[in-house]
Amino acid sequence: MSNEHVFDKYLRQDKLPHMWCPGCGNGIVINAMIRAIEKTGINQDDVVVVSGIGCSSRANGYVDFCGLHTNHGRALPYATGVKMQNPNLKVIVVTGDGDCTSIGGNHFIHACRRNIDITTIVFNNNNYGMTGGQFSPTTPTNSKTKTTVYGNIDTPFDICNLAQTAGASYVARSTVYHATMLVNQIAEAINHKGFSVVEAVCDCPTLFGRLNKIGAAPEMLLNFKDRAVTVAQSKKMTQEELQGKIVIGKFLEDAERPEYSDRYQDVINIAKGGK
Ligand code: SF4
Questions:
Q1: H helices of 62-176, where?
Q2: Domains in the chain, please, with CATH?
Q3: Rounded Cα–Cα distance for residues 59 and 65 (Å)
């Protein structure tokens, strides 16, 4: 399908123009998500997009699917409710690094643990964009934000490590520079049965890029290109060599783990006297 047709089909034209800053990476991630949905062939009416609060969560309003724009950090509980009520729906959560791993951090690890069939796309721009550029759980050590003006002293979460450790059964990472890889990963995640996480490293030129003197959007994308190493390359590198790198690719795909809504259906069947 041509670009024009994809956008006509999946974007709510009456909600445009969007509120994002020029050069913000959020648009590339949404572009990747709608291309991935088109690629999977899933019926548009069977997709539910759920978001929390933040710049990336505003994406929900621009795409033409059933949707829920919920409270800060609470997209996953709402998404879990939707999935449990109707397991035939394809539920996609769009969330930011702060929304997902700070305010919603507990919901995230428990959704991973349950392996419920939800695809979560984490827009990771390393700061809270919407509220003015405060540091988030993924802000790199020594980076500057509005609340770490002398450099961040925290150690950041690695979202993909966290998801794997907590029990997610599909985990991948790409960046907005590697947009084709991002489309393929989101499509795979949607087709995967179980809790799937795609971390999309994206640029926030207005706040994170400016405060850390990385430059505007083109420089930020080139910075992602320069720092990216594949999962295979990373396995041959030392921890020292991996400092500052962004490891991209698929970390995990486990089709064998039982999925939560299926297991819950088993419980319902047993309660009704079946086996
Ligand atoms: Fe994008 Fe950052 Fe602007 Fe938010 S503040 S719209 S994340 S560039």
A1: 75-85, 97-98, 105-114, 159-166
A2: 6-271 (3.40.50.970)
A3: 11
Q: Is the omega angle on the peptide bond into residue 17 within 30 degrees of 0, that is, cis?
A: yes
Amino acid at 108: F
Tell me how far the alpha carbon of residue 130 lies from the centroid of ligand 1, in angstroms.
7
Measured distance between the N- and C-terminal CA atoms of the chain, rounded to whole angstroms: 46
pLDDT per residue as tens digits for the range 129-144? 999 999 999 999 999 9
Going by alpha carbons, the residue nearest to atom 4 of ligand 1 is: 129
What phi and psi values does residue 172 have, to the nearest 5 degrees?
-150, 160
Q: What residue's CA is closest to ligand 1, atom 2?
A: 204
Q: Dihedral sign for Cα 64, 68, 72, 76, please.
A: negative
Report CA-CA distances (Å) from 168 to 119, 197, 219: 10, 7, 33
The C-alpha atoms of residue 44 and residue 10 are separated, in whole angstroms, by 8
Tokens of 178: 């590697």
Check: pTM over 0.85? Answer yes or no.
yes
